Amino acid sequence: MIRKISNERSRRWLAVIIGISTSLPFAWACSSSDEEPSGDPAIPNTADSSTSDGGREHRDAESPKGDADAAGHDADASGDANEQDAGDAGDAGDAGDAGNLDPLRIVQIEAGLGASTCARRASGAVLCWGTNGSGELGNGTTTDSATPVVVSGLTDAAEVGVGFGYACARRTTGAVVCWGKNAAGQLGDGTKTNRLTPVSVSGLTDAIQLDVGPGHACAVRAAGDVVCWGSNENAAFLETYGDALTPVVIAGLADVVEVALGEVHNCARKASGTVLCWGSNAYGLLGDGSGNDHYTPVAVKDLGNAAELALGASSSCARQTTGVVVCWGDDGWGQLGLGFNVGTRATPDLVADLTDAVEISAGAVHVCARHATGAVSCWGSNNDRQLGSGSTTEQTNRPLPVTGLTDAVGISAGGRQAIELQQSHTCALRATGAVVCWGNNASGQLGDGTTTNRPTPTTVVGL
Question: Which residue windows are transmembrane per the record (predicted)?
């Protein structure tokens, strides 16, 4: 959300949202595993209250992450070409604002870059499901689960992100906690020890936005700068090789409102709508047209009104304030969505047949967009039927509609970043509060109680 939203406008939107929410036919069937355990100790609040206030001030500038109560904001922003607005979902994304909703309502869905998925309730509780070999479900075990289980001790999440074998959550205080695999320091606690329940990221108390990559994570702080931690293989975010076990500041960034991560590259969106990227420039990932790697951020060429970012393993996309989407990088699976295959693009190019996008999300080699109508379209690889169209084609270079989905208020595309290990799925949050997922289900990441792959949306049980 590039444009600062006034408090008055926020109150007006909240009034509208509450009115809509109370009129919808909610049907939450909560299993016993969903009950927030009263015996779990709360994660210590290490954030300083003065910095957390600053975080809330900046949440108007966050990117949408699938908040059901933010759908109206997104649609408003996409239709206004004269106002640089990323979708206003940041206000409603705060679990504190969401407290006026039913606390059990799902307000964010996040399909992981591995074989797990997480969802955030309005109360701030987080539930996860799928593979759990490294403790990425956060419930204190390493047992896989094909239905949602509660992340232990986490009751005030404002945003959640799921990587490959680990996950992180931004708390309402501005602190960040992570859990799961920690072989490269991706949990940010100063160690390389896996954690089965959330631990605090060292020294981070004022985060306003969070993104989680396959092996490293980054956060935008209240001052508008960016910090990252975790795997720095191939100099993914720092010029000097070596993992970062605690957050380090990325030089050359200020006035940032959103950070997005790929496997070996990263991008940041500034309040002005400009985008800067750094890391590997293979396939033209950085969008500057040079083909040269850059370890300090460089501007994406001819992109000045970005409202949201979505990065895949080897491609980058941006939603613009007008509702169109541009992509650049590798097109080997049609993930640029141009309507024809081009090999690579070193600068942004328009996605075909898409003019009303209000949200985008990228998996490893596929991308999805939510339309203002509530419909969802996806393009790119379909090896795991992650496009949701029911088609058996292996890939498509233009958006295809997801079968039977007309009321989405949030989307998330996931999948393993390494193409040779591709295992992709996609999820959507519906206006009713239900969650549906489709694609690969080998580890139960679709949450329907089975391990059966699904070519079209299937409902997650127990939410």
Answer: none
Q: Which domains does the chain have, with CATH numbers?
A: 7-459 (2.130.10.30)
How many CB atoms are closer than 10 A to CB 5? 17
Q: How far apart are CA 134 and CA 224, in angstroms?
A: 32
Q: Classify the phi-psi angles of 389: left when phi > 0, otherwise alpha if psi is within -120 to 50, otherwise beta.
A: alpha
Please give the chain's pLDDT, 463 residues, in tens. Answer: 233 333 333 333 333 333 433 333 333 333 333 344 333 333 333 333 333 333 323 333 333 443 443 333 333 333 333 333 333 333 333 333 445 789 999 999 999 999 999 999 999 999 999 999 999 999 999 999 999 999 999 999 999 999 999 999 999 999 999 999 999 999 999 999 999 999 999 999 999 999 999 999 999 999 999 999 999 876 677 777 789 999 999 999 999 999 999 999 999 999 999 999 999 999 999 999 998 999 899 999 999 999 999 999 999 999 999 999 999 999 999 999 999 999 999 999 999 999 999 999 999 999 999 999 999 999 999 999 999 999 999 999 999 999 999 999 999 999 875 545 568 999 999 999 999 999 999 999 999 999 999 999 999 999 9
State the DSSP string of 201-262: PTT---EEEEEE-SSEEEEEETTS-EEEEE--GGGSS-SS-S-EEEEEEPTT--SEEEEEE-
β-strand partners of 368: 361, 378
Tokens 């419909």 belong to which residue? 375
Tokens describing residue 98: 């969401």
User: H or E stretch including 7?
Assistant: helix 7-23
Query: Which residue in the block uniquely carries the two structure tokens 């949450």?
Result: 447
Give first-to-last CA distance, the chain, whole Å.
29
Task: Judge whether 107 and 123 are in contact, CB under 8 Å.
Answer: no
Cα separation, 426 vs 386, in Å, equals: 6
CB neighbour class for 280 (10 Å; exposed up to 12, middle 13-18, buried from 19): buried
**C-alpha to C-alpha distance for 448 and 147, rounded to whole angstroms:** 6
Residue whose C-alpha is closest to residue 345's, from 356, 353, 334: 334
